[in-house]
Amino acid sequence: MTDTRSYALICKLSEANLLKLLTVDKTRGWRPKLIHIRLADGSSYQCYAPEDLYHIAFLKNMILRPSCYACHFKLSHSQADLTIGDFWGVADTFPDMNDNKGISLVLPRTAAGWRIWKALSPRLEVRTVDAEHALIRNSTARRSVKIPDRRERFFKEAFRDGALDLDVLEKLEAEPSPPPGTPSALPAWGPPPPAEPGLPVLYPSKEECCGCEACRAACPKGAIAMEPDGETFLYPRIDAALCVNCRKCQRVCPIGGKREKAQ
Ligand code: SF4
Ligand code: SF4
Questions:
Q1: Given this structure, which CATH class describes domain 206-262?
Q2: What predicted TM-score, i.e. pTM, was given to this entire model?
Q3: For range 135-139, the mean pLDDT
Q4: Long-range pairs for 31-34 at CB < 8 Å and ≥24 separation?
Q5: Average pLDDT of the chain?
């Protein structure tokens, strides 16, 4: 049976005083892929990533937060000057650069982005590649990932009574796939808990918050705390007793700012 201890440990992180979590430990390179978790009580967990249920669930896009399925930062509508990511497929394009240390794909997208890139690139080992070619194996730079058909069931069945049973993943995987063309049911994410009257609304639906914590960091009164939802993702909550309604949190939100410009 697959070892599920990493999940159990991750569930206890808030209580257990996490020292270090390397979801994939790359201190010795990309290969071998290791999950590495160290806790303050001295315990640690290491597992070959392809055998770790957390990693498997992640690669199957099962445990991404709602905003990842409706990402506001894809190339067609990102406002970034530079886009940087892992260069998947580098082994086919530049095999001599595939050295186990990881290669980044950098896409300067604005005049400011090109200026930054020109200043940085003389210090780096750089190859130029046609963007269309580079994006063939990096399609998620353009499109959000599809919501897995069984994601909603996975969360309902894997989290019960505060315990986590990730063997549910294997059970769901063993079920026959729905026939091609079957529309995938969208999870009932719905709106966030209603904000108290007069307080800023930070996100109108769960897909609209990527959990970046910019609002929490910007709040001059320390009125925002990040709290887990039913899927254990963190979302901001405003303490009405501390909030002075300055709206700095709304102005700094990378998604809220775009939403206001679009309106
Ligand atoms: S409105 Fe101002 S005080 Fe209130 S939560 Fe936002 S940043 Fe903090
Ligand atoms: S700034 Fe706050 S509300 Fe906006 S995406 Fe980040 S965590 Fe969510």
A1: alpha beta
A2: 0.77
A3: 90
A4: 31/100
A5: 82
In single-letter form, the type of residue at position 234 comes to L
Give the residue, out of 202, 203, 213, 219, with the most ligand 1 atoms within 8 A of its beta carbon, to mutate for a pocket test.
219
Query: Ligand 1: does its nearest atom lie under 6 Å from the Cβ of 214?
Result: no
Q: Residue range 148-167: average pLDDT?
A: 78
Enumerate the domain spans of the chain. 5-59+148-174, 82-141, 206-262
Q: Is the peptide bond before 32 cis (omega within 30 degrees of 0)?
A: yes
C-beta of 224 in contact with ligand 2 (< 6 A): no
Reply yes or no: is the peptide bond before residue 108 cis, omega within 30 of 0: no
CA distance 149 to 163: 23
Q: 189, 205, 255, 259: which to mutate for ligand 2, most atoms within 8 A of CB? A: 255
* Mean pLDDT, rounded, for 3-11: 56
Report which protein residue has its CA nearest ligand 2's atom 2. Answer: 215
